[in-house]
Amino acid sequence: MVELANGSSDVEALNAVTMPPEIRAILDDDGVPSDRDLVAWLSKLESFTRNWCTESSTLKSRHAVKNTPVNNLLSLEKHEEQDRRRNKSSTMEKELPTSPGDSDTLRMQNGLVDKVSNEIDACLQNPNVFISPKFLELYVKTKIHLGHFQSLPSMFALYASKPVPLADTRPARYKAANPASASAAIPLPVANLALTAAMEGRDLAICLDIIDSTVRTQAYTRNKLVKRALVPATGAILAPVAAFTLASQLSVFQDTMDPTTATNIAFVGILAYLGYTSVIGVVALTTANDQMDRVTWAQGTPLHLRWLREDERAMWDRIAGAWGFKDVRKRGEEEGHDWKILKEMVGLRGMVLDKTELMEGME
């Protein structure tokens, strides 16, 4: 259920912003629409829905999993403040008279929310629409504002596999997409936004699907290698050349031995220093665990996999923190169907949930 700030006037405004005639005309055309126009339209829609859906909206809970005694206990501390605000809001609502017209308005509002969600889904699925990273980010934010985060994993898969329409072609021609390419990776901030929405909706299945469709894909691994490992790898390849050049220059400033011998000694010394410090740095980077809370790596996990999959581990850590007790002294006492699934899935991914020797008081 969504609460509107200004009643029917907001409904009319949202109707106008959802699919303006000029945007519909662009999408109905057989050419490739401008990404700039689509981003500008979706940016306005995202801004409107963000202001439209008020803080007291219970839309997300409409799609959330049912509460159980175990789930209530697990989420008690996290949602205590939210519950107080919700109870205060409910008390105020009870004091207001209700009428059949209120129910009709709510049904109309919820129907409009579904319509908006379906419209932007159809836009994203339009074969002539190119899904740029900015367009995807605005789409995800809009869906989260509307509370329809369940479709995000399938749209992430569409982003990676959808054929790319070629610009300035009429009728549109397409280039096959490679789901494993670095450009098909979902940006980490967008993936975190989607995961946060699923966690707030208490939907564990969607959380798992988001991880599988974002940080666990081959495209994300390649993207991380290109963005964060390409420059250091290039430096490692060029290091011997730079070291030899520097050693040749240093040999000129001495006269105690043959220049060739001096060059070789300096070259070996520089390479030894660079190699030693590089190895120490790599080991420190891949074995750091200060950022870990409840999910850690299983014994024997290769160091390069720990670095490549750190973002995935961090997401599992966030999920465990959301579903588990906040009190450190109660950790390990969680029960319930969702918790068993979570613990099993973490183990299947080469990680450990609540490693005994790392828990409080178990050193």
How would you describe this structure in keywords?
single chain; 363 residues; mainly alpha; two-stranded antiparallel ribbon; 4 strands; disordered N terminus
The unreliable regions are 1-5, 58-83, 85-99
Write down the secondary-structure element order. Answer: HHHHHHHHHEEHHHHEHHHE
Structural class: mainly alpha
Mass-distribution shape: flat
Instruction: Figure out the total of helices.
Output: 16
Q: What's the count of strands? A: 4
> Between the first and last Cα atoms, what is the distance in angstroms?
48 Å
Percent helix: 55-70%
Percent of sequence in beta strands: under 5%
The major beta sheet can be summarized as: 2 strands, antiparallel
Report the radius of gyration as a whole number of Å.
Answer: 27 Å
**Looking across the biggest beta sheet, what order are the strands in?**
1-2
Q: Roughly what is the average pLDDT, rounded to an integer?
A: 82
